[in-house]
Amino acid sequence: MKIPKMLKVTYMGEPLKNIYPHATKWQVFKYKFALFMRKTLIVSMIVGAVYGSFHIGRATTEPVFLQAEDKSKAMFMSKVDKLKEEVANQLMACESAGHTEDDGIIIFDSNAKASIGNFQFQKDTVIHYYKVLYGKTITPKEAVLIALDQDKARSLAIDVMFTTKNKAGRDWFNCANKLKLDERIDIIKSIEQ
After folding, report:
1. How far apart are the C-alpha atoms of 141 and 127, rounded to whole Å?
2. CB 181 within 8 A of CB 92
3. Is the pLDDT of residue 136 over 90?
4. Which of 70, 72, 96, 147 is in Cβ range 3.0-4.6 Å of 116 for a Cys bridge?
5. What is the model's pLDDT at position 69?
6. What percent of the chain lies above the pLDDT cut of 90?
7. Roughly how many angstroms between the first and final C-alpha of the chain, as a whole number?
8. Own/partner pairs for 110-117, CB < 8 Å, 24+ apart?
9. Cβ atoms within 10 A of the Cβ of 75, count?
10. Which pLDDT band holds residue 140 (cuts at 50, 70, 90)?
11. Which backbone phi and psi does 15 adopt, to 5 degrees?
């Protein structure tokens, strides 16, 4: 089926849609003006309804602000903490030479002072770092108990290695050199920044 073609009908060269028989020019003007005003009124009502709906909706709803949680940073920091734990565990394995916390290791160093626990802390070292790192003054007895407690000693060792410029080489010279701990500590510190 063919689509019929639109016919253009004219009367004396003027399109038929523009011809108003039996109407004066004034009547034609009034008719066209009324048609224009009707279309303008309809368009204005539609635009006004959309505009009004938008502003009513905006006035009656509260804005909601959501703070995106940065889980990637938390995951990153937990991985960095695991790396620190690995360094501390390697240091402990080296310093304790296979002994456990229950063995209560006490070894006298060449300076005739006792190195205590799995991390081989001397009591003066524990007292010093508790003062420097935590601003806390502890007794020699508390220092010995901290050195013998594997978890507290590990926590202190991690803080000593990663928050002071001494790293591992100053307090655990032999094991730090053997395991190249200072180099690993530098790498972890650079990742952490």
Report:
1. 10
2. no
3. yes
4. 147
5. 66
6. 52
7. 77
8. 116/144, 116/147, 116/148, 117/147, 117/148, 117/149, 117/150, 117/153
9. 10
10. very high
11. -60, 140
- 82 burial level (CB within 10 Å; 0-12, 13-18, 19+): exposed
The residue among 141 and 68 whose pLDDT is bigger is 141
Distance CA 174, CA 181 (A): 10
- What is the per-residue pLDDT across 36-49, written as a single tens digit (0 to 9) for each? 999 999 999 999 99
Which residue from 147, 182, 152, 179 is spatially nearest to 168, judged by alpha carbons? 182
pLDDT given at position 191: 85
Average pLDDT over residues 77-85: 89
- Distance in angstroms (rounded) separating the CA atoms of residues 120 and 148: 9
What percentage of the chain carries pLDDT values higher than 70? Answer: 98
CA–CA gap between residue 11 and residue 25 (Å, rounded): 17
- In the numeric block, which tokens belong to residue 126? 């524990």
Reply yes or no on whether the pLDDT at 33 is more than 90.
yes
* 4, 13, 54, 97, 108 from 144: Cα distances, Å: 105, 115, 72, 19, 14
Q: How far apart, in Å, are the Cα atoms of 106 and each of 17, 90, 93, 118? A: 113, 19, 15, 9
